[in-house]
Amino acid sequence: MMPLTVPPRSVYTTFMNVPLITDLDALDADFAIIGMPYGDPYSMDEVTNDQTNAPTAVRRASERLSSGFDYWDFDIGGTVFDGKPIKVVDVGDVPGDPRDPKSHYLRAEQAVRKILAAGAVPITIGGDHGVPIPVFRALSAHGPITLVHLDAHLDWRDEVNGAKEGYSSPIRRASEMDHIGEIFQIGLRGQGSARAAEVEAALRYGAHLVSASDLHRAGMEAILQSIPAGGRYYISIDADGMDPAVVPAVGAPQPGGITYPQVIELIKGLCGKGRVMGLDFVELMPGRDVNEISSITAAHVILNFIGASVRAGHRG
Question: Which CATH number fits domain 15-311: 3.40.50.300, 3.10.290.10, 1.10.3380.30, 3.40.800.10?
Fold first, then answer.
Protein backbone atom coordinates (compact mmCIF):
# COMPACT_ATOMS: atom_id res chain seq x y z
CA MET A 1 0.00 0.00 0.00
CA MET A 2 1.42 3.39 -0.96
CA PRO A 3 2.03 5.68 2.06
CA LEU A 4 0.09 8.92 2.45
CA THR A 5 3.27 10.99 2.21
CA VAL A 6 6.90 10.38 1.26
CA PRO A 7 10.07 12.36 2.07
CA PRO A 8 10.68 15.47 -0.05
CA ARG A 9 12.99 15.22 -3.02
CA SER A 10 16.63 15.22 -2.03
CA VAL A 11 17.53 18.62 -3.53
CA TYR A 12 16.64 20.13 -0.16
CA THR A 13 15.32 18.20 2.78
CA THR A 14 12.52 20.08 4.52
CA PHE A 15 11.04 23.54 4.83
CA MET A 16 13.36 25.65 7.01
CA ASN A 17 15.10 22.39 7.92
CA VAL A 18 12.31 21.45 10.37
CA PRO A 19 11.94 17.78 11.41
CA LEU A 20 10.60 15.37 8.80
CA ILE A 21 7.64 13.29 10.05
CA THR A 22 5.95 10.90 7.62
CA ASP A 23 4.21 8.75 10.27
CA LEU A 24 1.07 10.87 10.51
CA ASP A 25 -0.42 8.62 13.18
CA ALA A 26 2.40 9.76 15.49
CA LEU A 27 2.21 13.42 14.53
CA ASP A 28 2.88 15.91 17.33
CA ALA A 29 3.02 19.43 15.93
CA ASP A 30 1.34 22.81 15.76
CA PHE A 31 1.93 23.30 12.02
CA ALA A 32 2.57 20.72 9.30
CA ILE A 33 4.07 21.59 5.92
CA ILE A 34 2.82 19.23 3.23
CA GLY A 35 3.73 19.15 -0.46
CA MET A 36 1.07 18.24 -3.02
CA PRO A 37 2.80 18.24 -6.39
CA TYR A 38 0.03 16.67 -8.49
CA GLY A 39 -3.42 17.89 -9.50
CA ASP A 40 -6.05 16.46 -11.85
CA PRO A 41 -4.54 17.19 -15.30
CA TYR A 42 -6.50 18.23 -18.35
CA SER A 43 -3.99 16.62 -20.75
CA MET A 44 -0.99 14.32 -20.67
CA ASP A 45 1.28 17.37 -21.00
CA GLU A 46 0.11 18.50 -17.56
CA VAL A 47 0.70 15.26 -15.67
CA THR A 48 4.17 16.27 -14.50
CA ASN A 49 4.38 19.94 -15.45
CA ASP A 50 6.71 22.44 -13.79
CA GLN A 51 4.27 23.07 -10.95
CA THR A 52 5.07 19.61 -9.63
CA ASN A 53 8.52 21.00 -8.80
CA ALA A 54 7.16 23.83 -6.62
CA PRO A 55 7.22 22.07 -3.22
CA THR A 56 10.92 21.32 -3.75
CA ALA A 57 11.62 24.87 -4.95
CA VAL A 58 9.93 26.52 -1.96
CA ARG A 59 11.74 24.24 0.47
CA ARG A 60 15.04 25.03 -1.24
CA ALA A 61 14.32 28.77 -1.21
CA SER A 62 13.56 28.63 2.51
CA GLU A 63 17.27 27.99 3.03
CA ARG A 64 17.91 31.52 1.73
CA LEU A 65 15.07 32.93 3.77
CA SER A 66 16.49 32.77 7.28
CA SER A 67 18.96 31.00 9.51
CA GLY A 68 16.24 30.00 11.95
CA PHE A 69 12.95 30.76 13.64
CA ASP A 70 14.66 32.70 16.44
CA TYR A 71 15.72 35.55 14.12
CA TRP A 72 13.79 38.83 14.21
CA ASP A 73 11.30 39.16 11.36
CA PHE A 74 10.24 42.74 10.63
CA ASP A 75 7.17 41.57 8.68
CA ILE A 76 5.98 39.73 11.76
CA GLY A 77 7.25 42.18 14.38
CA GLY A 78 9.43 39.76 16.29
CA THR A 79 10.55 36.18 16.15
CA VAL A 80 8.23 33.76 14.38
CA PHE A 81 7.36 31.73 17.48
CA ASP A 82 7.16 34.77 19.80
CA GLY A 83 9.05 32.87 22.50
CA LYS A 84 6.48 30.06 22.61
CA PRO A 85 7.21 26.30 22.33
CA ILE A 86 5.85 25.95 18.80
CA LYS A 87 6.43 22.78 16.80
CA VAL A 88 6.62 22.95 13.01
CA VAL A 89 7.23 19.78 11.02
CA ASP A 90 7.41 18.85 7.35
CA VAL A 91 5.42 15.73 6.50
CA GLY A 92 6.81 15.40 2.97
CA ASP A 93 4.92 15.10 -0.31
CA VAL A 94 1.79 13.25 -1.32
CA PRO A 95 3.00 10.76 -3.96
CA GLY A 96 1.37 10.24 -7.32
CA ASP A 97 0.70 6.87 -8.93
CA PRO A 98 0.74 6.84 -12.77
CA ARG A 99 -1.33 3.63 -12.72
CA ASP A 100 -4.03 5.33 -10.63
CA PRO A 101 -3.98 9.04 -11.49
CA LYS A 102 -6.71 10.06 -9.02
CA SER A 103 -5.52 8.14 -5.98
CA HIS A 104 -3.26 10.96 -4.81
CA TYR A 105 -6.33 13.12 -4.12
CA LEU A 106 -7.61 10.45 -1.75
CA ARG A 107 -4.19 10.20 -0.07
CA ALA A 108 -4.04 13.99 0.19
CA GLU A 109 -7.43 14.10 1.90
CA GLN A 110 -6.50 11.30 4.30
CA ALA A 111 -3.19 12.98 5.12
CA VAL A 112 -4.81 16.33 5.90
CA ARG A 113 -7.49 14.64 8.01
CA LYS A 114 -4.73 13.07 10.10
CA ILE A 115 -2.93 16.42 10.39
CA LEU A 116 -6.11 18.08 11.62
CA ALA A 117 -6.90 15.19 13.99
CA ALA A 118 -3.46 15.69 15.55
CA GLY A 119 -4.37 19.32 16.26
CA ALA A 120 -1.93 20.71 13.69
CA VAL A 121 -2.57 23.30 10.99
CA PRO A 122 -1.92 22.06 7.42
CA ILE A 123 0.15 24.35 5.20
CA THR A 124 0.08 23.05 1.64
CA ILE A 125 2.56 23.78 -1.12
CA GLY A 126 1.21 22.88 -4.57
CA GLY A 127 1.04 21.77 -7.34
CA ASP A 128 -1.72 23.40 -9.34
CA HIS A 129 -4.94 24.85 -7.97
CA GLY A 130 -6.69 21.51 -8.11
CA VAL A 131 -4.78 20.28 -5.06
CA PRO A 132 -6.80 22.27 -2.47
CA ILE A 133 -9.93 20.29 -3.39
CA PRO A 134 -9.03 17.27 -1.19
CA VAL A 135 -7.92 19.72 1.51
CA PHE A 136 -11.36 21.33 1.43
CA ARG A 137 -12.93 17.89 1.83
CA ALA A 138 -10.69 17.09 4.80
CA LEU A 139 -12.12 20.12 6.64
CA SER A 140 -15.62 18.57 6.72
CA ALA A 141 -15.65 18.18 10.52
CA HIS A 142 -14.53 21.76 11.12
CA GLY A 143 -17.21 23.83 9.42
CA PRO A 144 -18.59 26.23 8.72
CA ILE A 145 -15.48 27.42 6.92
CA THR A 146 -15.20 30.85 5.33
CA LEU A 147 -13.06 30.35 2.24
CA VAL A 148 -10.76 33.23 1.33
CA HIS A 149 -9.36 32.80 -2.17
CA LEU A 150 -6.63 34.99 -3.71
CA ASP A 151 -6.40 34.64 -7.48
CA ALA A 152 -6.49 36.46 -10.78
CA HIS A 153 -9.03 33.87 -11.95
CA LEU A 154 -12.48 32.86 -10.75
CA ASP A 155 -11.98 29.05 -10.83
CA TRP A 156 -15.69 28.19 -11.09
CA ARG A 157 -15.50 25.92 -14.18
CA ASP A 158 -17.67 22.82 -13.71
CA GLU A 159 -15.42 20.69 -15.93
CA VAL A 160 -12.64 20.95 -18.50
CA ASN A 161 -12.05 18.05 -20.91
CA GLY A 162 -14.19 15.92 -18.60
CA ALA A 163 -12.03 16.68 -15.54
CA LYS A 164 -14.11 18.17 -12.71
CA GLU A 165 -11.33 18.56 -10.13
CA GLY A 166 -8.68 20.42 -12.10
CA TYR A 167 -7.15 23.83 -11.52
CA SER A 168 -10.07 25.77 -13.04
CA SER A 169 -12.67 24.21 -10.70
CA PRO A 170 -11.57 24.35 -7.02
CA ILE A 171 -13.99 27.07 -5.92
CA ARG A 172 -16.92 25.46 -7.76
CA ARG A 173 -16.15 22.19 -5.96
CA ALA A 174 -15.79 24.00 -2.63
CA SER A 175 -19.20 25.64 -3.10
CA GLU A 176 -20.76 22.15 -3.29
CA MET A 177 -19.45 21.15 0.15
CA ASP A 178 -21.87 21.60 3.04
CA HIS A 179 -19.15 22.77 5.45
CA ILE A 180 -18.01 25.61 3.21
CA GLY A 181 -19.91 28.80 3.99
CA GLU A 182 -19.12 32.25 2.66
CA ILE A 183 -16.56 32.59 -0.11
CA PHE A 184 -14.44 35.70 -0.65
CA GLN A 185 -12.47 35.85 -3.91
CA ILE A 186 -9.89 38.63 -3.98
CA GLY A 187 -7.65 39.96 -6.74
CA LEU A 188 -9.74 39.00 -9.78
CA ARG A 189 -8.62 40.70 -12.97
CA GLY A 190 -8.17 40.31 -16.71
CA GLN A 191 -9.54 37.39 -18.68
CA GLY A 192 -9.04 33.84 -17.49
CA SER A 193 -11.13 30.82 -16.65
CA ALA A 194 -14.41 32.69 -16.18
CA ARG A 195 -17.12 32.87 -18.78
CA ALA A 196 -20.43 34.61 -18.09
CA ALA A 197 -21.96 31.34 -16.88
CA GLU A 198 -19.26 30.86 -14.23
CA VAL A 199 -19.64 34.42 -12.97
CA GLU A 200 -23.39 33.94 -12.73
CA ALA A 201 -22.91 30.66 -10.81
CA ALA A 202 -20.57 32.37 -8.34
CA LEU A 203 -23.01 35.24 -7.81
CA ARG A 204 -25.95 32.84 -7.35
CA TYR A 205 -23.97 31.12 -4.61
CA GLY A 206 -23.34 34.47 -2.96
CA ALA A 207 -19.58 34.57 -3.46
CA HIS A 208 -18.03 37.95 -2.75
CA LEU A 209 -16.06 38.87 -5.87
CA VAL A 210 -13.39 41.49 -5.22
CA SER A 211 -11.48 42.66 -8.28
CA ALA A 212 -7.90 43.81 -8.02
CA SER A 213 -9.14 47.32 -8.88
CA ASP A 214 -11.63 47.18 -6.01
CA LEU A 215 -8.88 46.04 -3.66
CA HIS A 216 -6.41 48.72 -4.67
CA ARG A 217 -9.05 51.44 -4.48
CA ALA A 218 -10.55 50.44 -1.11
CA GLY A 219 -7.50 48.85 0.55
CA MET A 220 -7.18 45.49 2.26
CA GLU A 221 -8.48 46.83 5.58
CA ALA A 222 -11.84 47.57 3.96
CA ILE A 223 -11.96 44.06 2.48
CA LEU A 224 -11.16 42.58 5.89
CA GLN A 225 -13.99 44.53 7.47
CA SER A 226 -16.43 42.87 5.07
CA ILE A 227 -15.39 39.37 6.24
CA PRO A 228 -17.40 38.31 9.32
CA ALA A 229 -15.39 37.98 12.54
CA GLY A 230 -15.32 35.06 14.95
CA GLY A 231 -15.33 32.32 12.37
CA ARG A 232 -13.11 29.63 10.95
CA TYR A 233 -11.24 30.47 7.78
CA TYR A 234 -9.19 28.77 5.10
CA ILE A 235 -6.83 30.73 2.83
CA SER A 236 -6.08 29.52 -0.70
CA ILE A 237 -3.44 31.54 -2.57
CA ASP A 238 -2.94 31.09 -6.28
CA ALA A 239 0.49 32.54 -7.12
CA ASP A 240 -0.95 34.45 -10.08
CA GLY A 241 -3.24 36.30 -7.69
CA MET A 242 -0.18 38.22 -6.57
CA ASP A 243 1.43 40.87 -8.72
CA PRO A 244 3.93 39.34 -11.18
CA ALA A 245 6.49 41.95 -10.11
CA VAL A 246 6.99 39.92 -6.92
CA VAL A 247 5.74 36.49 -8.10
CA PRO A 248 6.71 36.15 -11.77
CA ALA A 249 6.89 32.33 -11.77
CA VAL A 250 3.34 31.62 -12.96
CA GLY A 251 1.74 30.21 -16.07
CA ALA A 252 -0.77 33.02 -16.56
CA PRO A 253 0.73 36.31 -15.31
CA GLN A 254 -1.66 39.25 -15.03
CA PRO A 255 -0.50 42.78 -14.21
CA GLY A 256 -1.96 44.74 -11.31
CA GLY A 257 -2.16 41.92 -8.78
CA ILE A 258 -2.19 41.73 -5.00
CA THR A 259 0.96 43.10 -3.40
CA TYR A 260 3.05 41.29 -0.84
CA PRO A 261 2.14 43.76 1.96
CA GLN A 262 -1.56 43.30 1.13
CA VAL A 263 -1.26 39.51 1.43
CA ILE A 264 0.46 39.84 4.81
CA GLU A 265 -2.20 42.33 5.98
CA LEU A 266 -4.90 39.85 5.00
CA ILE A 267 -3.22 36.97 6.83
CA LYS A 268 -2.72 39.00 10.01
CA GLY A 269 -6.26 40.33 9.81
CA LEU A 270 -7.88 36.91 9.41
CA CYS A 271 -5.80 35.41 12.23
CA GLY A 272 -6.98 38.29 14.41
CA LYS A 273 -10.63 37.75 13.44
CA GLY A 274 -10.85 34.06 14.19
CA ARG A 275 -9.16 30.73 13.60
CA VAL A 276 -7.45 30.08 10.26
CA MET A 277 -7.63 26.31 9.75
CA GLY A 278 -5.07 26.10 6.97
CA LEU A 279 -3.38 27.76 4.04
CA ASP A 280 -2.20 26.69 0.62
CA PHE A 281 0.13 28.35 -1.90
CA VAL A 282 -0.27 26.88 -5.37
CA GLU A 283 0.46 27.39 -9.09
CA LEU A 284 4.16 28.26 -8.80
CA MET A 285 6.26 27.36 -11.84
CA PRO A 286 9.90 27.39 -10.62
CA GLY A 287 11.31 27.23 -14.15
CA ARG A 288 9.95 30.74 -14.79
CA ASP A 289 11.30 32.25 -11.59
CA VAL A 290 13.79 35.13 -11.32
CA ASN A 291 16.44 34.74 -8.60
CA GLU A 292 13.99 32.46 -6.70
CA ILE A 293 11.91 35.51 -5.72
CA SER A 294 8.59 33.70 -6.23
CA SER A 295 9.59 30.74 -4.06
CA ILE A 296 11.11 33.07 -1.46
CA THR A 297 7.85 35.05 -1.40
CA ALA A 298 5.85 31.84 -0.87
CA ALA A 299 8.14 30.89 2.00
CA HIS A 300 7.75 34.35 3.56
CA VAL A 301 3.97 34.04 3.31
CA ILE A 302 4.14 30.72 5.15
CA LEU A 303 6.33 32.20 7.90
CA ASN A 304 3.98 35.16 8.30
CA PHE A 305 1.01 32.83 8.57
CA ILE A 306 2.72 30.84 11.33
CA GLY A 307 3.77 34.01 13.16
CA ALA A 308 0.29 35.59 12.90
CA SER A 309 -1.42 32.40 14.13
CA VAL A 310 0.91 32.18 17.11
CA ARG A 311 0.33 35.84 18.03
CA ALA A 312 -3.42 35.41 17.78
CA GLY A 313 -3.15 32.74 20.48
CA HIS A 314 -4.19 29.87 18.25
CA ARG A 315 -0.98 27.91 18.88
CA GLY A 316 1.53 27.58 21.71
Answer: 3.40.800.10
